[in-house]
Structure formats: structure tokens, C-alpha cells
Design brief:
- The protein is mainly α.
- It has helices spanning 4-7, 60-77; strands spanning 34-35, 41-42.
- It has a single domain (4-77), classed as Thiol Ester Dehydrase, Chain A.
- The chain contains two helices and two strands, in the order αββα.
- The protein has a two-stranded antiparallel sheet.
- The protein is globular.
Length: 82
């Protein structure tokens, strides 16, 4: 049982169970940030019904989750993980 946290890391710098981009997380939003040559990052995501809050809107918690993750990726891409 103690090995499982270690097994969650696939060596590519992200947990396979990451709540945002983990490939083994069945409810992870389809966000795929990419680092660009100019030091910035880009990402595009289309969220469906599973991420809805009020009718026609994304749930605020999902918005915060995506923003937090994107800022973390940006820090990492800039060479200053936080």
C-alpha cells in the first residue's frame, strides 16, 4: 500500500491521477496545456455538461481548478515551479 503514491507518478512530471490532466482520472477536464517557444503556454478546453454549474455556465470550482492548474504549468514552464 505504501508504494501506490510512488506508482502514481509516471516519470513524465505529472501524476497519472492528477485532477486536471491525469490520464487515469476519468473525470479530468480535457485541458492540454502546451509550452511555447516564447516561454508562454497555451491551452484550449471545451467543457461539457459534466462541468456545468448554473444553466449554461461552467461551475465556479471547475473554473478555479483550471486556472490554478494552468498557472502552475506556466510557473513550471518558466522554470520556477510553485
Amino acid at each position: 500500500m505504501q508504494q501506490r503514491p510512488v506508482d502514481m507518478w509516471g516519470g513524465e512530471g505529472v501524476s497519472r491521477h492528477d485532477p486536471v490532466t491525469g490520464p487515469e482520472n476519468a473525470i479530468a477536464p480535457p485541458l492540454h496545456p502546451v509550452g511555447l517557444d516564447d516561454g508562454s503556454i497555451a491551452a484550449r478546453v471545451t467543457l461539457g455538461l459534466a462541468y456545468r454549474g448554473p444553466p449554461g455556465c461552467v461551475h465556479g470550482g471547475i473554473s478555479a481548478l483550471l486556472l490554478d492548474h494552468t498557472l502552475g504549468v506556466a510557473n513550471h514552464w518558466a522554470g520556477s515551479p510553485a
